[in-house]
Amino acid sequence: MPKNSFYTKELATGCKLCQKGAKLVLLVTGLCNAGCFYCPLSEKKKGKDVIYADEKLVKSNEDILEEAELIEAEGTGITGGDPLVTIEKTIEMIHLLKDYFGEKHHIHLYTATLSSEKVKRLEEAGLDEIRFHPPSIYWEKIEKTNLKEIAKNCEISKGIEIPLIPHLKKETIHLLKEVDTYGFDFINLNELEFSITNLEALDKYGYDAKSDVSSAVKGSEEMAYEMLELNLSTPIHYCSSAFKDAIQLRRRIGRRARNVAKLYEIITEDATLLKGVIMAGKEKIEEIKKEFEIEDHLIAWDDEKGRIETSPFILEEIAEYLPYKCYIVEEYPTADRLEVEVTPLN
User: Fold this and answer.
1) Does this model's pTM top 0.90?
2) How far apart are CA 217 and CA 197, in angstroms?
3) pLDDT digits 0-9 by tens, 111-140
4) How many other β-carbons are positioned within 10 Å of the β-carbon of residue 143?
5) Given 83, 168, 215, 327, which is the most exposed site by the fewest CB atoms within 10 A?
6) CA-CA distance, 164 to 157, in Å (whole number)?
7) Domains of the chain
8) How far apart are CA 49 and CA 51, in angstroms?
């Protein structure tokens, strides 16, 4: 696998679809009772009972279905927070997706809640795959929890998914050796990452970023390769921070770019959108269109950002003749339209 990721034996179905960029990321709540010090969830989501479909703040079920269609989703990863904290809402989302896209739409879910009753309800609702993330305080005494019983009774694809935390190596080894006997279908190991919300907590343990251009924690990836030496019978999958960004995210936004790009926008190799931007009022469109003989489909008003947009090639030719500020803008094709680069033309 690219970007130093690897797996042994078999990848979970959810991971296969994620690798293709074909999974909708559905955060059903930012609420969680686990209190993991390393949680990377952003401030706008953490501890808040909100719903996000990829980067889109959800205000109705239609928002979820629209985002899934825009990325041509073949499945959904339900995440949080902890989806089991708001189980009724989570079950509603499973039904919504299965009813709309059909049984073939693969749904996996992450949870830190160890509840046989709730897991059974998810199975009955149509969940295809579940990933348990026991809080790190239980790793060295996981046998004292009911995880083994839950795994035994769980009839859908099931796995463990945790980050690789260097100072918890001993606890991680204990956890993995123990759950290797529980009959799980896979173990997913993620590279630990810095975020705005966990920076202070990780800094207390003396962690550094592994490079100037990475948010990954130094030493986490090396730990993944050490876990291979345990020779576990359960399939292992290590997913690096770079793989998530360079492969998964890029492929997902590439699928969205194909469906949202306007005729005047250029889709780049990084799956971002390139456009020309004129900082003038809406009333100036007809004047600019007429003066420079621009076809209707190659210029438009962007109501959301309050500006005129056109082809970057056209704007490069006419910017010097316009009395308005002009820019070439590169932005993500995501719902939040994050701008990557803004280049002045005049």
Assistant:
1) yes
2) 14
3) 999 999 999 999 999 999 999 999 999 999
4) 14
5) 215
6) 22
7) 6-255 (3.20.20), 264-344 (no CATH)
8) 7
- Residue 50 has φ and ψ, to the nearest 5°, of -120, 165
Q: Closest Cα to residue 168, out of 185, 189, 152, 187?
A: 189
**Tokens encoding 144:** 């004292």
Cα 331 to Cα 112, 257, 314: the distances in Å are 35, 10, 18
- How far apart CA 149 and CA 243 sit, in angstroms, is 33
Encoded tokens for 177: 């050796």
Q: Tell me the residue type at 42.
A: S
Extract the tokens encoding 176. Answer: 């993995």
Q: Which residues make Cβ contacts (< 8 Å) with residue 332, sequence separation at least 6?
A: 55, 253, 272, 273, 338, 340
**What are the pLDDT digits (tens) for 207-250?**
999 988 889 999 999 999 999 999 999 999 999 999 988 889 99
Cβ of 323: how many Cβ atoms within 10 Å? 7
Type of residue at 11: L
Token digits for 153?
């009774």
**Sign of torsion, CA 198 200 202 207?**
positive
Q: Which amino acid is at 40?
A: P
